[in-house]
Amino acid sequence: MTWYRVLKESQMNDGDLFKAKVNGKEILIIKDEGKFYATSLYCTHEQYDLSDGFMDDHKLICPNHFATFDPKDGSVVSPPEGSGDIEPLKSYRTKVENGDVLVEVD
Ligand code: FES
C-alpha cells in the first residue's frame, strides 16, 4: 500500500465530491464535517459515476436510483428501492499532511 497526494485540502468544501485517478484506480474523495474520505467511484448498483452524486445528512447519495452509502467505510445505508442488496463501495484510508490530502492505494 502506498500513500498518494491527490489534492490540496483547500480545494474542497464540506459536502464536495472530487473524482480522482490514483495509481490507475478511479476514486471518489468526499469531504464531510472537515474530514476526508475516499471510496471507489462507481455505484455498485449500475456503475453510475458517484462524483455526479451528492451528500445529504453525511451520507453519499447516488442520483441514479438513490442508493445511499456511508462515506466513512463505503457501507450501504440503503439500496435503491426494490433492488435487493447491493455491494458496499471500496473504502480507502485518507490523511492530511502539510495541507495535502493523501489516499492509500495498493
Ligand atoms: S446506479 Fe446508483 S442507485 Fe442505481
From TrEMBL:
<dbReference type="InterPro" id="IPR017941">
    <property type="entry name" value="Rieske_2Fe-2S"/>
</dbReference>
<dbReference type="GO" id="GO:0051537">
    <property type="term" value="F:2 iron, 2 sulfur cluster binding"/>
</dbReference>
<keyword id="KW-0001">2Fe-2S</keyword>
<dbReference type="GO" id="GO:0046872">
    <property type="term" value="F:metal ion binding"/>
</dbReference>
<protein>
    <submittedName>
        <fullName>(2Fe-2S)-binding protein</fullName>
    </submittedName>
</protein>
<keyword id="KW-0411">Iron-sulfur</keyword>
<dbReference type="Pfam" id="PF00355">
    <property type="entry name" value="Rieske"/>
</dbReference>
<feature type="domain" description="Rieske">
    <location>
        <begin position="4"/>
        <end position="103"/>
    </location>
</feature>
<keyword id="KW-0479">Metal-binding</keyword>
<keyword id="KW-0408">Iron</keyword>
<dbReference type="InterPro" id="IPR036922">
    <property type="entry name" value="Rieske_2Fe-2S_sf"/>
</dbReference>
